[in-house]
Amino acid sequence: MTEKIIAQFKLDYGTFKLDVDLQLPSSGITVLFGHSGSGKTTLLRCIAGLQHAQHGFLSINGKLWQDSNQQLFLPTHKRSLGYVFQDANLFAHLTVRGNLCYGLKRIGQTATTKKFNQVIELLGIEHLLERMPECLSGGERQRVAIARALVLNPDILLMDEPLASLDFKRKQEILPFLTRLHNELNIPLLYVTHSQQEVAQLADYLVLLADGKVQAAGLLADTLSRLYLPHAQDRQAASVWHVTVMEHEPAYHLTRVAFAGGDLSVPVIDAPLGTALRIQIYARDVSITLEVAKTTSILNVLPATITDIVDDETGQSLIRLRVGNQPLLAHITRKSAQKLALQTGMMVYVQIKGTSILN
Amino acid sequence: MLSAADIDTLWLTFKVASLATIILLLLGTPLAWWLVRSPFRWKSICNALVALPIVLPPSVLGFYLLILMSPTGVVGRLTTAVGLGTLPFTFTGLVVASVLYSMPFVVQPLQTAFTAIGNTPLEAAATLRASPLNTFFTVVLPLSRSGFLTAAILGFTHTVGEFGVVLMVGGNIPNRTRVVSVQIYNHVEAMEYSQAHGLAGVLLGFSFLVLLLLYSTLKTNPVSPLK
After folding, report:
1. What is the pLDDT of residue A183?
2. Is B124 part of the contact surface with chain A (CB cutoff 8 Å)?
3. A85 chain-B contacts, CB cut-off 8 A
4. pLDDT < 70: residue spans in chain A
5. First vs last Cα of chain A: how many Å apart?
6. What pLDDT, in 10s, does the model give residues A247-290?
7. In chain A, which residues have their Cβ closer than 8 Å to the Cβ of B142?
8. What is the pLDDT of residue A326?
9. Do B124 and A82 touch (CB under 8 A)?
């Protein structure tokens, strides 16, 4: 019961209202996703105590941080958290080492702990320790900021669009570190972003926010397929599946991977058998047939059930399906949808033209 | 070239300005912080009061101070009650007047420096377990070093250069309230131009050197008192 995050906030700024009531998993990466003005950053700041919601209840794995019914509001500096700001926000008057040690000194520790060395190594910033923040690149700064939050060994890690101010190259520099964090961290990480790519790559649990309200919350695969339904025209619409490496077929440069409900052939993956991976399947790469075509060139043909059909104004239809237990999105023209007389509940076959490996 | 009396006035001026600057930094820092951070609605009244000495003729400020500190004035009755006697025409009175007169030259650079720091380093410190007071000493003070240097130098030099307020509140008493600017005035009144030259030259050189130090220390332009 206590091993979860309960966050309830009501906040009214006149033009903007935040009203959320969430229960989030006690570990793994929870992504708060929404467009600007959706309230995702405000929600994160309320959790950090940087903003004081008039009505709020916040409990982190059994530790009570806010309960407005009891007039309880723990100030930020008394909360065991790590916070990574969008623009790193390092102290300009301290070296990288000084920045890393700032929080440690305040919890009575020094930079000699094993944790400190681990974090430095994890983020690859050993060679930067004696530099001043102004001499670092944007990506390096953000890595130092993440390390500064991590060395405190907090109960929860909060990240506010840590990649938003970086260019594509720098993003690619940081993302592997975040994926490593995902594997090595045993504390919950709340991650705010408006990038679908980051959602697909990092999220275990997804919260969709719009206009200060929660639109949907749940495990990534389920929630992600709902993300695109209101905007069927979205060319980036995609599904994310968790798979494990089953078999390599070097002769064809292919790898067979298993998912809950079947298996797929994907371009060769350089990973040992049994490795868990995420793959992304764009809705535009999925087509639908009514029977198994024996003469198709497409390798991945799987039975599926239609759960939803959404038409848009540009003659396209977004079809939501289930393959075994996995949700899948398919983007087809409305003409095809009508020719096949597709309806909710119908059993069909999906042909998957392409997949991409996320990590 | 400088007479013993001239040296005395220089020494007295130095004492007044140093003491006033120390007091101003101690009072001005929390005041400037409050003016920048407080959500208080009528803050602009306080801002206007702090800035008043910039626009008021020193004689007006001096006149009101004289009235307030006189035996029948509010401040005068208070100081008499606590056994300090009355302040006009004393060294203490001179320091008090200097503090008020130079207040904006210390408070405003500090305000500018504190505003420039913004909210984000404070929030970062809070997420790193630093209490607000601890944050002030370990983040705000080091980040506003140039603001403090500007404030101290402007406060000191402005106090050295005061004349009108000194004349009204302090008078012209050797070794107690006779500062350099008054002494120069005395020399000119007495047609002692060569001695006036000596003291005026000292002040000119001193002021130039201090400002030169300020501008060459700060890489960027120092924050001006009236922005």
Report:
1. 77
2. yes
3. 120, 123-124
4. 1-2, 227-235, 359
5. 32
6. 999 999 999 999 988 889 998 888 889 888 888 898 889 999 99
7. 93
8. 87
9. no
Distance from CA of B144 to the nearest CA of A (A): 10
| Alpha-carbon gap, residue A141 to A133, rounded angstroms | 7
Measured between alpha carbons, how far is B165 from B171 in angstroms, rounded to an integer?
A: 9
CB nearest A89 (choices: B120, B131, B143): B120
Residue A144 touches chain B, beta carbons under 8 Å: no
Question: How many Å apart are CA A201 and CA A252, to the nearest integer?
Answer: 27
Domain count for chain A: 2
Residue ranges making up the domain that contains A277: 238-357
Asked whether the beta carbons of residue A77 and residue B139 sit closer than 8 angstroms, the reply is no
Q: How far apart are CA A157 and CA B199, in angstroms?
A: 65
Tokens of B64: 């009101």
A9: nearest Cα among A227, A214, A193, A160: A214
Domain that holds residue B139: 4-217
Interaxial angle between packed helices B91-117 and B145-160, expressed in degrees from 0 to 180 and rounded to the nearest 10: 150
Q: Are B129 and A48 an interchain contact pair (Cβ–Cβ within 8 Å)?
A: no
Tokens of A158: 């909060």
Q: Among the three residues A198, A227, A256, which one is the final residue of a domain in this structure?
A: A227
Q: Where are the alpha helices (DSSP H) in chain A?
A: 40-48, 96-106, 114-123, 138-150, 168-184, 196-202, 220-227, 334-339
What is the tally of structural domains in chain B?
1
Q: Do A154 and A285 reside in the same domain of the chain?
A: no
- A83 touches B at CB < 8 Å: yes
Angle between helices A138-150 and A114-123 (to 10 degrees): 150
Identify the burial level of A49 via C-beta atoms within 10 angstroms of its C-beta, where 0-12 means exposed, 13-18 middle and 19 or more buried: buried
**Chain A contacts of B132, Cβ < 8 Å?**
77
Instruction: Give A21's DSSP letter.
Output: E
Of A83, A87, A91, the CB nearest to B127: A83
Residues of A15-38 as b/e, b for ≥16 C-beta within 10 angstroms? Answer: eeebbbebebebbbbbbbbbeeeb
Cβ-based contacts of A89 with chain B (< 8 Å): 120-121, 123-124
Any B CB within 8 A of A100 CB: no
Tell me the pLDDT of chain B averaged across its residues.
90
- Measured between CB atoms, does A67 come within 8 Å of chain B? no
Interchain contact A90–B (C-beta under 8 A): yes
| Domain end (from A170, A197, A227) | A227
Is any Cβ of chain B less than 8 angstroms from the Cβ of A102? yes
- Asked whether residue A92 falls in the same domain as residue A203, the answer is yes
